[in-house]
Amino acid sequence: MVNLLYSEFQKSRNLKALKFLEDEKADALSENIDPKNPFQPPYKGFFRIRLYVEHQKRQVVVFIPDSFQPMGEEIVLLPADNQSADSILENSSWVEMAWKEGFLLMVLEAEGGRWKTDEADEEFPYFQAIGAFEYAQKLYTYHAGRRYYVGYGEGGQAVQLHLAMNPTKAAGMTVVGCNDMPDGVLEVLGAEESEEPGVLKQNIPVPAWIIGKNSENVNSVNYWRKCGRCTEFTGCRGDVTCYAPGLKWHGSGNNTLPVQQVWSSVVDSMSPVMEMDFINKLWGFLKTVERTGGNHLNGDLQEVVTWKEIRCIRHTAIVDDKLREWLVYLPSACQKSPEKKFPMVMGLHGYSGTGESFMCGCNFYKA
Question: Can you point out the beta strands (E) in the chain?
Answer without folding.
Answer: 3-4, 45-53, 56-64, 72-78, 104-108, 142-152, 172-178, 208-213, 232-237, 240-244, 262-267, 289-291, 301-303, 312-319, 322-329
